[in-house]
Amino acid sequence: MKRVLLVVAACVLVTACESMPKVQPWQKGNLAKPEMAFDPDTLEARFADHTYFSKEAASGGAGVGGGGCGCN
Amino acid sequence: MRVQLNTMQNRTRTPARSILAAALALPGLLPGTSQAQVTAPNATLVQFKFLYYKDYQQSGDRMTIKSPALYLLTPIVDDWVFEIGAVYDSISGASPYYHTTLSGASGKGIQDGRTAADVTFTKYFANRTSVAVRAAYSNENDYKSIAGGVTIRHATPDQNTTFTLGGGYSGDQVFPEVGTPQTYYKRTYDAIVGVSQVITPNDTAQLNFYHAYQSGYLTDPYKAYYGVDNRPTTRSQNALLARWNHYFDWADATLRTSYRYYHDDWEVSANTLTLDWAQTLPGGWVLTPGLRYTAQSAAFFYFDPVYDPLLGAPFPPGYLLNPTAFYSEDQRLSAFGAITAGLKVSKAFAGGWIIDGKAEYYEQRGDWRIGGDGSPGLETFKAQIYQVGVTRKF
């Protein structure tokens, strides 16, 4: 049931975005700022993932094939 | 380009900043790419960071970790991009025997080093598609991991929507330094499906669904030796990660938000929210205060620090009747809430140099869990995290 809801949510999101006015290439100046990246600082993001992976039970969501460590 | 900029400026009297921004947004020119695009970066980035981490609780200090790390991203030939990362963790201190009872008093402290490296090759194709192949290696005295993954990204012709599909594998070996020398194996398969979407000139969002399946030796060998720890041999993990970034023109600042819902078949559910406010200031300064809150439920086999009346600590009540059942006394599998508060300062210099520093404070408590009861009887867990870095783009 959860998976069905997820798929529906994703479809709604994509459809909603399709119906919005398209952002044109010359309007992407702000989007191109480094601060607008989802992970603007690679090593900082890695440190954070590693820290929380070793101190909490939940992990994952941003990428695959990260590999394990004895810290957990 | 400069000539073109000047001409346009004279003709339309558009503020120079927005023209520059527009020019920067053209593929191939940008220092960073717009977030939903699939465009090969054309600049090299080298980054060095040093992390100092220490955690502690009321009854004593726990681990201290010092980690120098390196990262390089560079375009090579024919739309190929190469990335390499390396880190060394120097680990010392004490780990709890069970619950928050520290090993320091009677047992030996921990002294370990971890060396890890990874390489990624990404090929960018003309149809706005990229394929990244990654390999990673991590080695400790008592743990070794070899991992890899493939991630495919594809953007729509307007470069406003990007789809991500990825799969990975990790083969791990555990050789505990206690008990009979033995090697245990652990495998992880993971997959990601995601979509990133440019919503407005100031908004970009991402939705990822992540799944991982682990099998093999998932127990903590030290907690099993000194305390009681016996975990299922499989674990199925699901996470839904939603991120939304908004740029505020009036403040010249970016708000980065993320929310993750996590659930696994050990019955751990977690909700994690992060907020970062990246404030651009004159002179190349960026000030980024950040907050993170997470709350998780306990694994079904975690038991509170109430021990068997006959056997005493660390044995759970009724242990003798069922010694092979699943048990864990690991605080990480308990129910808690945790808050991180941090501040990052970075300054950009001429020549593509960036220097940054970040300080964070982390605290984990049973009674900070929202949406349910936290696990009782554990000491509050605290950590301080500091990092300094230098980055160069050229």
| Shape field of chain A | flat
Report the largest inter-chain contact. A-B, 51 and 115 residues
Strand order of the largest sheet of chain B: 1-2-3-6-7-8-9-10-11-12-13-14-15-16-17-18
Shape descriptor of chain B: globular
Oligomer: heterodimer
**How is the main sheet of chain A built?**
none
Percent of residues in helices of chain A comes to 40-55%
Strand content of chain B: over 45%
* Spatial extent as radius of gyration of chain B: 24 Å
Helix content estimate of chain B? under 10%
Number of helices of chain B: 3
* Count of beta strands of chain B: 18
- Output the CATH homologous superfamily of the largest domain in chain B: monomeric porin ompg
Low-confidence runs of chain B: 1-32
What is the number of helices of chain A? 2
Ranges of chain A where pLDDT stays below 50 over 5 or more residues in a row are none
How far from one another are the termini of chain B?
A: 18 Å
Strand content of chain A: under 5%
Average pLDDT of chain B: 90
What is the string of helix and strand elements of chain B? HHEEEEEEEEEEEHEEEEEEE
Secondary-structure blueprint:
The complex is a heterodimer of chains A (72) and B (394).
Chain A: H1 2-18, H2 42-55
Chain B: H1 2-12, H2 16-24, E1 45-57, E2 60-75, E3 80-93, E4 96-98, E5 101-102, E6 110-125, E7 129-140, E8 143-155, E9 161-174, E10 184-200, E11 203-216, H3 221-226, E12 234-248, E13 253-264, E14 269-281, E15 285-296, E16 336-349, E17 353-365, E18 381-393
Antiparallel strand pairs in B: 1-2, 1-18, 2-3, 3-6, 4-5, 6-7, 7-8, 8-9, 9-10, 10-11, 11-12, 12-13, 13-14, 14-15, 15-16, 16-17, 17-18
Describe this structure in words.
- The complex is a heterodimer of chains A (72) and B (394).
- Chain A is an all-alpha fold and 72 residues long.
- Chain A has helices spanning 2-18, 42-55.
- Chain A is flat, with a radius of gyration of 17 Å.
- The two termini of chain A are 31 Å apart.
- Chain B is mainly beta.
- Chain B has 2 domains: 1-30, no CATH class; 36-393, monomeric porin ompg (Porin), CATH 2.40.160.
- Chain B contains 3 helices and 18 strands.
- A 16-stranded antiparallel β-barrel of chain B has the order 1-2-3-6-7-8-9-10-11-12-13-14-15-16-17-18.
- Chain B is globular.
- Chains A and B meet through helix 1 and helix 2 of A and helix 2, strand 1, strand 2, strand 3 and strand 6 of B.
